[in-house]
Protein 1
Amino acid sequence: MIGSGRVGSAVASGLLAEGWEVTAVDESEDALMRLGPGWRGGFVLGHGMDTGVLEEAGIAGADAAVVATNGDNTNLVIAQVLKQRYEIGTVVVRVLDPARAAFYAERGIHTICPTDKAISELLSAVRASRRSAGEAA
Amino acid sequence: MYVVVAGGGKVGSNVTRTLLKMGHEVTLIEQRPDRFARLEAEFGPVVMRGDATEVHVLERAGIARPPELLLAVTGDDEDNLIISQIGKEGYGVPKAIARVNDPRNQQHFDLLGITQTICATTSILGLVEHEVPQHGLVPLVELRREGLVVAEIQVEGDSPAAGKRVGGIRLPEGSRVITVFRQGRTELVEPSTVVRPGDQLLAVVPKDSVLELRRALLGAPKQMV
């Protein structure tokens, strides 16, 4: 788990609960607080662009990697390094900018865009409420 | 030539100034409002405000024309990498040059196919070695695409090459000694040129054969003091 903010720490905890062996990487020790006192996974303090940090986190033996630092470009570079240099089969990366998410998705990167998801959720919520208002009238 | 420059710091602004003076068409993209205001006062409509890693900002800068040259020279390596990739892979920009701020990130640029890079730290370190030639052989320029290194070699009295004709020295395949600098003058090297102690040679050598070239001209590396 590269980047252990609100999203990253929750994903890490979720995977750990499902029986995965998880190591979280973050630049800040605050991440350990977010992971909580019950955290049984590994933790490496450092930047995901640093191959030394990745290797300390055991990247060579990883089956999957989730990249969710707070920078889109950082995430996209790390995701490509994980795929191409370490040949990790499953790499999922969070990208907030829809255009960049689409651009890299077309190039075979598995991007998840929370902005796109929020847009479609909000749209469908408004449409649903219009429909139910129409039905009530 | 049309050039898009991403990042208006010291590097970007000076490059823009020079390119404009040379008569080229330039668009300079800068994100920070304070910097943008200063640049706009100097360059006028050449400067555009925005985040050059956003596709619509690049499109407003004319990335789809496409420019003959894209310079990604922000202070952030991830941004420079992504800008270069979007330009080259998304819009067919023929040539992108990226600035590497932290030399440890060079490997990521190489891995992701951004082969034209410039790193001030690495250049300065190269110059330091040039000034303190204790290694005997100093790589001056690396031509990444060609896989070649241009190196300077300082010949000493005990170097195996000293006193030999260049044509008689077994150099690694694909390498060549080009010039010799002696007594304040540079001469082109012929196979008949005799290497003398004190000579500074300039050679082109495949990247993987640098140590072999060193051994051929200077012998085994001396113990560092």
Protein 2
Amino acid sequence: MSTASPRIDPTRLAGPAREAWCVGAATAAVARARAAGASAAEAAVDSGRSLSVRVSGGEIESLRQSATRELGLRVLVEGRIGFVSSNDLGAAALDGLARRAVALARHSTPDPANGLPDAADTGGDAPDLGLVDPALLELGAVDAIDMALRLERAALGFDPRVRRVEVAAVSRSDASVALANSDGLVRASSATGISAFVQPLADDRDGKQQSGSFGSEQRSLAALPDLEWMAGEAARRAVARIGARPVPTARAPVVMHPDIARAWLEEMYGAFTGSAVVKRESWLAGRLDTAIASALVTLVDDGRRPAAVGTSAWDAEGVPTRRNVLIDRGRLAMFEYDSYWARRAGTRTSGNAARAGALPGVGYHNLILEAGGESPEQILARIDRGFFMDDQGSYGFNSVTGDYSFQAQGFWIENGAKAYPVEGVTVAGRSLDMLRGIVGVGNDLRLDGAVASPTLMIAEMTVGGS
Amino acid sequence: MTPASDPSFPRASGQLPRELAAELLELARANGAEFADLYAESTVHTGFVFEENQLKSSAFSIQQGVGVRAVRGAQTGYAYADGFAAEDLREAARVAARIARDGRGGATPAFRVVEAAAPFTLVAPAPLALDEARKIALLERANGAARAADHRIAEVSAALTDLARSFVVANSDGCWADDEQYLSRLTVEALAIASDERQSGLAIGGGAVEAGYYEGERTPESIGAEAATIAATLLAAREPDAGAWPVVVGPGWGGVLVHECFGHSMEGDGIRKRTSIRAGQRGEQVAASGVTIVDSGVVPFSRGSFRIDDEGTPAQRTVLVADGVLVGYLWDLLNARLSGERPTGNGRRTSYRHFPLCRMTNTYIEAGPHSPEDLIGSVERGLYCKSLGGGSVNPADGNFSFQVTEAYQIERGTLAAPVRNATLTGNGNDAMLKIDGVANDLKIDGSSGSCGKDGQWKPVGVGQPTVRFTSITVGGTAA
């Protein structure tokens, strides 16, 4: 039986050595679980380092270094599930955890759908997906601080009305993860990450401020947009909002900035999960192979897009990922599953097991609405009067019904162009009507995270205002 | 099972010897940091999910470690180690120390233990005193009650999650404090389906509560039935009329409104950096007269309460607005020191993996003179929001929004048809000035709230009596 040595700190290792340490710890946890009475077990171990820098007024505001290790252990005892997690991976702790997991499982209800993924679903290749950037492994605190300072400086230099920057932050990470189960499956991989975020404030009248922001998360330094360009975009957005005001309530065409469109995609994703469908919580249940969106819409979940933030060769159960087409030119083509919900639905896993706390869940990898042919300007040019939405509140989506109702900021559109900035309004509709009402898809798709959309134009929504 | 003897909950206090703490603080200040602190923590979470009439999952998690902070001026260096191995902690202290590079450290004075009275004590805290079987039984009861409440309930998901946290905080001023915190939360989500309509309802109980709470103050049956009733009511609800309307917000969780659109702007970091609109407004009229707003870490049995904060400062009751006038802000150690203010016990962090931020505790509007019926009765046409869902604010520009989970049209002073999918929006700069009636039915919701800031989530309480606003923009599909 292999045992992870508690004396080696995995967070001081890198690359293959750290992967090997994670594999050792995961297989040890599986062995302990079996010894404690589990009929099957699956362990995931991850370990990584990260560095986060935030600057303010030309100085470091905070510099935080993280070094983490974490074990998640899922055990099965005669169809019952128990789950434990811990950051203590020493041998004695592992034994205690394994026993606790088995004891917890005995409280659960037996369910024949519980189990490790079927062997037929776990085969396949593990190609190099470009998830590790050697340049990021070399990126130290001084470099990250310099990048954050450049973000702040460029935002302040954009316009005299930008006098403060609320956030200028850069963080980098590198981590390894290993998965092992009692069927002998072993997977391991590593990835790096870099993210930058800037939020300048522009002075408005009466001491009021307007904010704009831009953020990007990537796997490699080279993929990160130019820092001065990002800061300029954020500052331009803050300045453009000066003098924003409400508009009267109206039914009008709405153009969604990519940030707004991708937030909507993320909210809608739950309805595409097999778990919601089986539990009758999805507003898309019963609509498979029917037109749920305009023919302009193709939505994919691509687990293997090279070097993307959501990419990994396999999912949280060790099933190879793939490119799933969820909406094919308007038609609902599939729902996504992990092995539990696939068994419940009488289908096969789509490689979408996600590790999110206790329950094995269904999750996306890279959720992308494919680009269309028009530029955002061409889309705006088609509108006599309407609303361009480029900021929103955090809450306003009903996951059971797909009802959409968000606080919004943006611009009123007149005669094919932005006329003046707007705030204090809401934008509401029903997702199914909105999907069917998409009459414009921009060519401006860019990936700044795991969810992405180009600009979208929706034929009509309710804009609630003064 | 008693808290003191529960072997599954190792206390942090036994893991950090004082000599080691003093050494770590010295290491953290070795390069010239003016201040350093340590936060050693041991936290156990358990969680059970009951859905589709079965116990779907049982989970247990334990996290232990120590975070080291070094502060120079307004600059923070932070590093942490998982576990309590001395060499790992020394390494974390050396990393944190790098925030300063051109000075020399100093010795830490002898530790003195922070004296603070507990705002309330738990004899048998629910997370420890209830064993697994009893926790699961609560979920079965909630599930049964929700399904029995209405024949249109098609699915119920009930979850019990709790935590027991033990921590020690020590700093270079010689402060030494430790505390234990216990939170329990029972959440029920019910799905109602009738022909083509589906709606869900959510109800939550819990807080920093005794095991007996679920047999007295709030039974699983009452939580389950409440979730089911909301879902069933919404089946017949209509879409709201979009536009600006008089709005009456019900007591309790409705206080999320004052939390978002006022409380955040009172946090010391935004005040010190002057990124908050409230900086420099002390003494000014910021809310309607008759409105008093408080942040209090000592509300009994609330999620947002504690004896000492995560920096070792005793919890207190802080008046933010007295009769409409801004009288005080919220301060953590760093921002208080830089601003020449006294800390108010609002330094909080998600875990040892995070440095403390200035955060709210339990934020609420004090009771006023009116009856709730009078406030509703005075509205010709408007919206009564019985319960809100999530809310958010952009602290920089003040724009806020709230999802309304259960609402009713007000027609000629009486509650009429139920309304669904309403969103409230406005600007925090003037929202509190739009209050024109405060009722006498103050309720503080200490069961539900979690507040996110800079990626850190922290349990909070919110509260208010029934409050009337002259006008709030309501979002909806009807125009």
Protein 3
Amino acid sequence: MKSTIRFGPAFATLFISMKAGDSIIVESGAMASMSANVDIKTRFNGGFFNAILRKVFGGESLFINSFHSNSDAEVVLTQTTPGEISEIELQGTTLCLQPGAFIACDPTVRLQLAWAGFASWFGGEGLFRLKLSGHGRIWLGGYGAIFEKEIQSEYSVDTGHLIAYEPTLSLSVGLSGGIFSSFFGGEGFVTRVRGRGKCLMQTRSMDGLAAWTNQHI
Amino acid sequence: MKVELLCQPASSVAEIYLDRGETLTAEVGAMIGMSTKINVETSTRSQGGQGGILKGIKRMFSGENFFLNHFTSNADAQRLILGPKIIGDIIVRELQGESLIIQGSSWLASTGGIELDTSWQGWGSAAFSGEKVFWVKCSGTGTAIINSFGGIYEIDVDGEYVVDTGHIVAFDDTLQFSVGKASSTWLSSLMSGEGIVCRFKGMGKVYCQTHNLSDFGKSLGPKLKPRSA
């Protein structure tokens, strides 16, 4: 199975060419177009109970799709927002994804739901997070460009800009500064990332766009 | 008449060179800039075409404006710049007697030799596709200028191809168009989040856009406050 990312960075789109017997796990609703011989199988996202929890508290899709083909085929996958798509190869490592970032992964990658904590929920990031582990490629998307940051001890990220992080990092929600600057400086809550490891951030956030749009309604 | 695309792909505009007597019909509000010897006329009918009020009303159903703007050049080498409202790409398609069906909001402009009509795609697609009932049908000889949300990729269909309803930009009318389920059963199609897809059969081109404007709207919508009266 070969992957190509085209139309990046503004409109990154994932073109997957499949050979007979290939399959790929795809986020619900991410398919833009595909060959007619591709078969879609749908299952609960991480088991029935987990899927419902994720839907209600995590803002994630209830179902996840497996695309399978018995002959040469092409699948075109995309994300809701304009922006970049990153391909990351997991080699026995684990990556935690924020709601909405997941697009697709190889079937060898394990998808799990993990408790993210109330701090994450207050920060607007959902009660659960998606944990991807094992071996294989994963594709994740961001609104705007995606950049990587190596964290040594502690780092603050504006809520809504964090899209993925290594599990060696822990998240908590805090104020960006004092009470005054936090609320009048427009930064409000920030997500504090502690530990050693890397995190991925998106250069735009839907909350930011919504806040700007709201001023004009 | 010559069309040049500038600032592709994210913020594309089309620059059109018009010689004396040449005309172009464009979506209302698409003009960004133009030379002074171009005459603009607003009407409900396509230039030299049939119809009138009725076609204007049909066009409103297709997501287009009731009115159309006609640009006619009174001198040689006049230039006109057109741009769509949303970010994304633009393509130019030359028609030589064939017909192209364009999704309501993707039609940007077409030259005088092209007859515009709104095309009824059948009850099935109207009820389920979530897209506009009417599409704009361009036929004749000339140039059609089409815009998209995101990039545009072209698929040469030979047999069958599946496109999510929100990703169709335009297609040759030599293709058979049917609306159906994404996977083998209705239950799993609805669960898959792909819901209803369009199946194109036959031979011809389908132009798809990389992003879905209505999905983007749905992800922004819930974050917006109600409009203050």
Protein 4
Amino acid sequence: MPLNLVGKSVHRVDAVAKVTGAAKFVADITVDRMLHAKVLRAGVPHALINSIDVSRAEAMPGVHKVVTGRGCTILFGTCLWDQPPLAVDRVRHAGEAVAVVLARTESQAEAAVKEIKVDYTPLPYVLDPVEALSASAPILHEKNGEYRRVQYVVLSEKNNNVFHHYKLRKGDAAAAFAGCDVVLEDDFEYPLMSHAALEPHGAICRFEADRSIEIWASNQAPFVLRDVLSDMFGVPNTKIRVHIPYLGGGFGGKSDISIEPMVAYAASFVPGYAVKLVLTRKEVFTSSLVGRGMKGHMKLGATKEGKLVALEARLCFSDGAYGDTGWPVVTVSGHNCTGPYEIPNCHVDALGIYTNTPPVGAYRGYGHPEGQFMCSRLMDRLARTLKIPLAELMRRNFLSEGKANGLGQVIKKSNGDLYACLEAVEKSLGSKPAEDDTYLYGRGLAAMMKSPKMAANASSCAYLQVSGDGSVFINLAGIEMGQGCHTVFTQMAAEALKVPMDKVRIYSDVDTQFTPWEWQTVASMQTYRGGRAITQACERAIELLKSNAAVVLECTPDDVEYDGQHCFLKSVPDKRLTVGSLARGYMYQNGLTVGVPVQATGSYRVQGVTEPDPETGMGNAAGSWTFGVQAADVRIEKATGKVEILHFSSAFDPGRVVNPQLCRGQITGGVVQGIGHALHEKIQFDDKGVIRGANFGPYHIPTVKDIPEKQTVTFVETPNPEGPFSAKPIAEHPIVVVPGVLLNALFDATGVEFTHVPVTPKDILEALKGRR
Amino acid sequence: MATITLTVNRVKHTVALEHDKVKLSDVLRDQLELTGVKVGCGVGKCGSCTVILNGKAVTSCNLPATRADGAEVQTIEGLSDGFALHPVQEAFIETGAIQCGFCTPGLVMRTVALLNQTPAPTAQQVKDALEGHLCRCTGYEAILEAVRVSQEKLSRV
């Protein structure tokens, strides 16, 4: 059936609100009886708290309360409960919250924070994940391995800093390496980075006298937040109301629970008052969540014909002071570090390690960029070693129908077509210029895959109601954070209902008091999973309209046809009733009403997903895949080492592109974010273990002057019966292998094997010196 | 307590400042409820808080409010008449230059100021003007296109 709206670049449904300044973000919200919070941060990476003196601060003008962690016995988490809302007797990273001042104005709170005196006994600290494994490293949590945790998925060790050790044991890697013609290996580093969503994290929380809790938060996971607060304070889920306004970017940095437990804990001391905290940019760097932080080693073995045989990898993550947000990233980084290739023998250890840094959480790509950075660099080297063109080597090993991935799952045709992606990228490239006096030129190529990491019961739920004028509203908890899910939802609902888009309204204020349950907006799953929930609700609503019509037309529902405006008798199309007239049941002239009000629900859960087996790390843990191939042409200015990207070409297979303009925006934005990782971004620490340069400027995210001269974006659309209108996840994907592409291009230009990001002009000048 | 008088979106206001470090963005957001002015960094490095002050685009998060005493200020809220959008706003929508929308008001105001001053900017002038604006979502491609389309629309007005 031809599609009218799905596949069209319709304008965003939230565009007018955003372009007029009307769209509300959490910082824009004011509620009555609202106090402002400011937080005293530790300032030291690891120390015992001997005493905190808040007496002067509490006497300052406007101050209602100064809250510390003294006596707090709460540990919060979702699968690993290791973090207090405020430091209790010890700080484990320099950005950790030690005390919260609640005052009438923000500047009063800020002034009072300066009056708090804390006495510390410094402890040795460790920032590097490999150092944190050594016997002499300070132990951050003596209770590691004893904390409450979901034991099947969080595999903690004891008496060390390893709070999660994921193992993939597929085939027999050791034996397989012995039979390989070529074995290559190297060390790699992908340091800590900031998501740098433009909107800083914020929350407003109020405890009522009856112990119910209301919170407004910049969070991608309202129901997870609700459940965490419920667990923290022993309040039923139903007495907690979470509101989520527009999010000014998330990229995973707002998917995990970060500042909300602290704000709620502080608010619990001033019942009746709302407590508002919006982080400063500095705090976003030091005291929310950060991403990546991997040091790794990978070994790849192949036959001389270029068939991959074995992979061994060890990924060590400096996951920061607390582990609940890091462990699942570690798991995925491990089982998907194979990239989009079939490798029969895999031996992977991925370790989540406590370090004295901010906790690591989800970040766009979710473990895939770290692992596939290593694999894409080694593939490039393998191609050169075997003297097989890289594209050909990739083709000989791509995952495709009937082949098994690292988890042992067998790929279906509908999972996507890497060969077509590669062909599209190859076609888009022109000829590569030769070195000239000013520039070196290089070309890089890499392929990626990503599967969502999710709770095995992760679902989306939608509620739909048809109104008396035939317009429709839909309520679901897909969070709009820029990716365009509300627009895509509207397109899909209007398509399914055969109505114009302006007849469909997606509720934009997610409110757990009214909105049906949803796992969370992560893993690029809203188009796919939310879309299935919506289309099911639409189908059910149409069925109800037909059965209402059947009563009036005195036939069976099967005799009724629906065209978006009317329900009519198939055999006598002139016998028709408008959708509006059927929406609340059908009312005859005398008021007698038959049928039912038309309201429907829909839900979708990716079927059959399990957690990986704790021993082998294998199993049906990935519910879908998206494949892609990317390439870049770069030039390096010899005098300065500056890298310019002349052309960046991407091809992805998202099943069906629901909105080409939005989808292209995901790719162009993801590529530029990846360029930041490859060439610019790294969270740096001073010699006292404190993050330095914690703001834009010192931490350089790409500006308009750092972007490729040209981006080519191609979509391969392999039919996917499982997806709504054939769609598959696409959002995180364009970032995954950008560092691999660019570092492969840098090798091509310079002959230098860079194995760390970011590669700065200084690194390049150093390397070129060695080259001459 | 010091007071300042300023004209914002054609309306004159006198506001009291809580202390001498109050920034223009605080006055606009907290006292005049113009929350379309976004604060992303607090140090004038991301451009989200950009407003037009006496005809020039400025970052309001690091501008002492006292410096706006007597000034004429335009924010995103003053750009359209409430229903009919400004051509630059239309261009941002049509070109897909908006994702999360947090950087959008600042970029729109910068574009308006740029095209008021330089109706036909070169590609380099556009990049120079936008360099101080960070966007983490779009990769800037659509934003550059929005500026181009804005220029076309304004040249037809």
